Amino acid sequence: MDSAPTALLVGKIMDILENEAYSIAAIRDEVDEIKQELVSMTSFLEDVEGQKTQTETQKAWVTSVRDLTSDVEDIIDEFMYHTYEQQSRGRFARWLHRTIHIPKNLFYRRKIANKLHKITKMIKAIPERNKRYALDDVVGTSWDDISKWVKNQAVSSLFINEDELVGIDGKKQTLTAWLLHEEQHLTVVSVVGMGGSGKTTLVAKTFTNETINRHFDSYAWITVSQTYVIEDLFRSLIKELHRTRKEDVPADLISMSYRDLLQLLVNYLESKRYLVVLDDVWDIKLWREIRIALPDRQLGSRIMLTTRKEDIASHCFGVESHVHCMQPLEKNDAWELFSRKSFSTFDGKCCPPELEKLAWELMEKCKGLPLAIIALGGLMSSKKSAAEWSKVYNGLNWHLTSHHLLEPVKSILLLSFNDLPYRLKHCFLYCSLFPEDYLIRRKRLIRLWIAEGFVEHARGVTPEQVAESYLMELIFRNMLQVVERNETGRPKSCKMHDLMRELALSTSEKEKFSVVYDGKEVLEDIGAHRLSIQTTQGGIKSCIGMSRPRSCLVFVTGIFSFSFSKSLPSGFKLLRVFDLEDVQIDKLPHNLVYLFNLRYLSLKGTQIKELPKAIGLLRNLLTLNILNTKIEVLPRGISKLLNLRLLIMHRRTGEYMAFKTAHGTRVPFNISKLKKLEVLSCVESEGNIIRLIGNMTQLTRIGITNVKERDAMDLCDSIQKLKLLQCLALRVSGEEEFLDVNALSSPPPHLRKLIFGSKLQKVPPWFSSLQNLTYLYLHWTRLDEDLLPHIEALPCLGRLLLVNAYVGNELCFNRGFPKLTILELFNFPLLNKITIAEGVMRNLRLLTLARCMELKALPQGFEYLSKLETLELLSVSMQLIESIQEGGVDHPTVKHITVITNYSLKCLIRAHHSSST
Fold this sequence. Notes:
Layout: H1 3-19, H2 28-50, E1 53-55, H3 56-88, H4 91-133, E2 139-142, H5 143-156, H6 169-180, E3 187-192, H7 199-207, H8 210-215, E4 218-223, H9 230-244, H10 258-269, E5 274-281, H11 285-290, E6 302-307, H12 310-313, E7 320-325, H13 331-342, H14 353-365, H15 370-380, H16 386-394, H17 396-402, H18 407-418, H19 422-430, E8 440-441, H20 442-452, H21 463-476, E9 481-485, E10 491-495, H22 498-510, E11 515-517, E12 530-535, E13 551-556, E14 577-579, E15 600-602, E16 623-625, E17 646-648, E18 651-652, E19 662-663, E20 679-684, H23 689-693, E21 701-707, H24 712-721, E22 727-732, E23 753-757, E24 775-779, H25 788-791, E25 799-803, E26 810-813, E27 822-826, E28 833-836, E29 846-850, E30 870-874, H26 878-884, E31 899-902, E32 907-910
Parallel strand pairs: 3-6, 3-7, 4-5, 5-6, 11-12, 12-13, 13-14, 14-15, 15-16, 16-17, 17-20, 20-21, 21-22, 22-23, 23-24, 24-25, 25-27, 26-28, 27-29, 29-30, 30-31
Antiparallel strand pairs: 1-2, 8-10, 9-10, 18-19, 31-32
Helix pairs in contact: 1-2, 1-3, 1-19, 2-3, 2-4, 3-4, 6-7, 9-10, 13-15, 14-16, 17-22, 19-21, 20-21
C-alpha cells in the first residue's frame, strides 16, 4: 500500500530529469547517478506492490524511499525555480546578474550537487542497512491474514442473526423470483455493491431459504476472494455439493489433478438442477475458468455471484443473466438497525432523548452501509453519555482506524483499496481532498489528475481518455458513487462514501500524500505535498506551517468574503495546482505569476476582474479556468502560455429563456499562437478572431459569441478546418440577426455537442449528417421549417433542448430518436399540439415543457413513453395542470412517472410506481 504514491513520485522525478536536462547540465553527474537509482527503486517498489505479504523491513524501506524521493523532488524543483528566475529576467538584467553574481551561482549549483550526492548515498544505504540487520524474514501484517478474516466473515453470513437484517425482504423476493423462474437454461444472478453493503448477507439469506433448498437437487456456497487456485475451488465445490446431499466425499480428492476434478464435477452435475454461489468475485477470469465445470443441461440450474465490481456483474456471461445493485438502506431502516445495535442495553431498548440528535448524526455518517451501521452501533452500545457520543463523532477517523470494534469496517474497505493498481490508489486518495458529501465533477477531477502527473502517457490516446478510464474503474469498483449522469449515461459528478473518505484521509496523512486543514488550529508541517483548505474562517496566510506544498485546493463555506495576504507564502512557490473555485475573492496575490511550476489554475466562480499582465510567465500552465468570473478581457501575455491546453472562460448572464444568456471574453489577436490549445470557450468575436481560429487545429471545443452575419463565410471556412472538434457553440450578436451556416459542407466528423443561438431561415442540411451528435441545443432559431425530420435519424442524440426554436403550432415525433433520454421544450408561444408515435423516443426519461401556454393537454401518444421518470412543467396552462391531476383526463397516463414537478404552482406531486415497475 505504501508504494503507490512513491512509485508515482519516482516517475514524476524521472520526467523532470528527462525534460529539464538542459537546465541542469552543471550537475549532470549527480543527476545521472540518482536517475539510475530511481530506476532500480521503481522496479523494487513494483515488486513489493505485487506481494500479498510485506515484511516490516520492506515497509520501512518503502517509507524511506518515499521520503527520499520527496526530498529529491524538492531539490530539483528548487533548482528549476532558481534557473527560471534567471531566465525570466530581461536580457540586460540577465547579463548584469551573470557578471556580478557568478560566484553565487557557482556556489548554488555546488550546493544542489552536494544535496543530490548526499541523498544518493542515503538511498544506497537503505538495502545495506537491511542486509546488516538481516530482517528480511520477519513478517509483518499479512494480506493473507486479512483475506482469511474476510473470507470467514463471508461464511458467517450464512448463520447471521435475524436482528442484523433490516430492509432485505423485497430484495430477497427479487432474487428468489429469478432463481425459481421457469427458464430452463442456465442463468447467472449477480449481486453487486461496495464492500459492506450487505451483498453476501442478502445472498446467504436467499441461499438458505427452505423453498430454494427444495427446488434444487444440489447446491453449494464457495467464497472466492482475491487470490484463489482453481483446483482448490473445484475441490471446495465438490465437497459442498456432496455435503448438501449427505454423500461421502471422494477419498482421493486431495490428490486429484485438474483434469480429474473437472471430469468429476461435470459428471456429477450432468443430470442435476443445481445452485452454485460464487461469493466475493474480483476477476472475470474466474468465470472463464469455472464455466466449463458447470454444464447447462436445461434443467433450470442457477449460478449466483457477489462482487464489488460493476463490470463483472454486467459481464456478458453467454447465458441468461440478471443484476441486482445493492442500494444503501433507507433512513428509517438504517435507524432501526442502528437502534437495535446501539440501544439494546438501554432502558426500554430505545434511544434516550438527550442522545437522539447525536445518534442520528452518527448513524448518517454510515450512509446506509449495513456493515458500518452494525459495527458502529456495537461500539456505541457501551457509551451512555452525550459526551462519550460526541467524542466518537468528532474522532470517527481515529476510531475507524484504531478501534477493534470497527475492525470489520476497516478491513472490508481496505480490501478494496489494496486491490487497486498503484496508479489508481493515488487517484482515489486524491478524492479525499474534496469536502465531505462534495459533488466532484468528472471534468474537474480529470483535469486535476492530469496536472498532478497521475495519468500515464499512452500512444494514440489523450490524457483525458486515460484519466476517464481511471475514473470509470473506481466507479466500477464501487469506490466512488455516481450522483449525476449526462444524456448518454456518462458520469457528470460523483462523491465518496463518508467512511471511504475517512479511510482515505487517514491513509493520505500517514503516507504524507495530503493533508486537510480546517482553519481551527495551527497547521503543522507533516511533509505532505497536497493541501486542502476547508474552512469558514481562515485564509492561505494561516497555512504558513505547510512548507513546499505542490497542490492547494480551497473550499470556503459559511462566509461571503475571503482574502489573501498581498502575496502567497514563500513555501507555495513550487505549486503545481491552485484551485480557488467559488472562493469569493476579488484580487490575486501579486506573486502568483512566479509559480513557474503551475499546471492548473482555477478561478471559476470568483469575483476576479482581471488577470495579471505578466500571466505569460506561467509557461507550464495546462489548464486556466476563469468561467463565471468578471474577467472581460485577456491580457496580451496569454499568448506566451505555449503549453496551455484548456482555456475555459465564458460568463453566464441574463434570464435563461431570454435571448442573450452568455457573454464571451475578448482575447488578443495573437491567441492563435497557442498551438496546443484544445478547449477555447467562450471567446468574443471581434477583429480577425474567427479567421484565426481556423489555424488552431488542435481544438476539440470552441465557443464563440457575438458572431455577425458578415462572419458566416469565414466561420464556415474555419470550422471546416477543425477536424478534431467535438463541441461547438455559436451565438449571434442580436436576436434578429441571421447566421447562414449552410456553406459548411462537411462539419467536423467527431462533433458530439452543438449549441446554436441564431435566427435561422431553414434547417442547415448538414444537421442530418451529425452521426456522433449526443446533445443539440437550438436557442432562438425561430424556424418556420419543421426541424424534427432532419434530426430524427441521428443515432446517438441523447438530449434535445429547444428554446424558442420553432414558430409552428404542432410538433410531430413520427419516427426515430432511438437514444433520446432528455427532451426540453422552452418558450413555444404558438405550440398547441404534440404528437408522439408508438416506438418513438422509447428511451425518454425526462420531459420538460415550459412556457407553452397554448398547450392544453399532454402530448398525444404520451402513454408510449414507458421509461419516462420525470415530467417537469413550468408556466403552462391550467388546463394542462388539471388534466393530470386526480380525476383529470390524462391522470391515468402519468401514474408510472416517479416525479412530476409543476414549478408554476410551487408544488411537487409524487406518483407511486405502478405494479409493473
